[in-house]
Amino acid sequence: MSKVVAQPGEPVAGPEGHDKEKRRQIMDGAREVFRAKGYEGAAMDAIAKAAGVSKGTLYVYFTNKDELFAELITDEKQDLAAALDAFQPTDGSFRDNLRAFALRFNELLTGENHMSTIRMVVGAVEKFPSVGAIFFKAGAERGVTRLTEVFATAVADGRLKPCDPTVAAQHFISLCTAEMMKKALFGAALRPTREASERIVDNGLDVFMAYYGAKD
Length: 216
Description:
- Helix 1 (about 20-40) packs across helix 7 and helix 5 (about 80-85) runs antiparallel to helix 6 (about 95-110).
- It contains eleven helices and no strands.
- The protein is mostly helical.
- It is elongated.
- The protein has two domains: about 20-75, Arc Repressor Mutant, subunit A (Orthogonal Bundle); about 75-210, Tetracycline Repressor, domain 2, CATH 1.10.357.10.
- It has helices at about 20-40, 45-50, 55-60, 65-75, 80-85, 95-110, 110-125, 130-140, 140-155, 165-185, 195-210.
């Protein structure tokens, strides 16, 4: 497999003059083929056909399948990235801030499109480890990095007790999202209801705040 040229989590910059609509058309075709065939089975010929472009046009925009997949992952993570970047706790209850964020983030994490991508990556990672690395860096690693910043500020402000903010971020994600992800991964029918999601998040926050919450 050729070397991944895109930096994980960053968009692949195309040459000047590329048509944005044509690029989107190719991305939509690639998404269709990757989900239907998996990473290994997705051929550039099939992607060009699904996108309604010639193979020559496809290679003008993306030099190989790795590069195309890297940008597809970045594109699919945009909503999650936006939610992370927008998370700025207000002056109200820190727990309430975390609860609102966790509920919104879980909606995005467990969406069927995102779950389909995860299943595709899991199916490919044994033969193509770089596929997993791209996905992890654009998703889980970015999430921990952003929440580390939030929790470091919360420690400085006295809203969390002195702690390692990176470890706190990892614990928060595990406590408030892991159960949701695990159920949704095995099919939409298992995806928790809104009421169940609130219960999972509330239980996770009980544990998180009992340990990390600042003591009066």
